[in-house]
């Protein structure tokens, strides 16, 4: 891959309404042209969770183009290849994380689903803020990796270590 071609990073979850959307927006901001941020779901909800949009807007992200979409958009004939696939669903919560076909570098960054939090809006919003912070920390570490690591087999190890990190 040359320096002019951004690495296409697809964040996957089941519903593509919260965690993967947050990750897409964060990488879009932090990626500096080195990365093209994408998100999708194996069973998309069809809408972005309102609290995901609220947290993103409060942190200065443009949200107009964000939408819940199927991973089929990125897997079909003629779709540009994906370089990195990161699942962000939480296996511990019994969610089924999608599996990506093909040969991109893959990693799992499991996070609890903030959309599953019940109770007062302050508690629900806090869950989205916590998820945003965890993703931002991991994505900042991804973006900080030098190009030689991004082009090496060590990338898998680094990405998986970021997924194992606690925020």
Give a quick rundown of the structure.
The chain has a single domain, classed as 3-Layer(aba) Sandwich (Rossmann fold). It is built from 6 helices and 4 strands, in the order E-H-E-H-H-E-E-H-H-H.
Q: What strand line-up does the widest sheet have?
A: 2-1-3-4
Which ranges are low-confidence, i.e. pLDDT below 50, for 5 or more consecutive residues? none
Write down the Rg.
15 Å
CATH top level label: Alpha Beta
CATH fold assignment? Rossmann fold
Distance between the termini: 31 Å
**What is the β-strand count?**
4
Count of separate structural domains: 1
CATH H level, superfamily name? Response regulator
Report the major sheet: 4 strands, parallel
Write down the overall geometry. globular
Structural class: alpha/beta
What average pLDDT do the residues reach? 89
Question: How large is the share of residues in beta strands?
Answer: 5-15%
Which series of helices and strands comes N to C? EHEHHEEHHH
Helix content: 25-40%
């Amino acid at each position: 891959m040359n320096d002019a071609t951004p690495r296409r990073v697809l964040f996957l979850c089941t519903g593509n309404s919260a965690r993967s959307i947050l990750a897409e927006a964060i990488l879009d901001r932090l990626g500096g042209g080195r990365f093209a941020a994408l998100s999708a779901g194996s069973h998309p909800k069809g809408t972005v969770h309102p609290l995901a949009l609220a947290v993103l807007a409060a942190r200065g992200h443009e949200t107009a183009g964000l939408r819940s979409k199927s991973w089929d958009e990125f897997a079909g004939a003629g779709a540009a290849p994906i370089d990195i696939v990161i699942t962000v669903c939480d296996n511990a919560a019994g969610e089924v994380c999608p599996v990506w076909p093909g040969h991109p570098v893959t990693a799992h960054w499991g996070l609890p689903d903030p959309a599953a939090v019940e109770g007062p809006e302050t508690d629900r919003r806090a869950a989205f803020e916590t998820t945003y912070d965890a993703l931002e920390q991991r994505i900042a570490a991804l973006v900080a990796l030098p190009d030689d690591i991004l082009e090496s087999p060590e990338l898998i190890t680094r990405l998986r270590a970021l997924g194992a990190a606690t925020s």
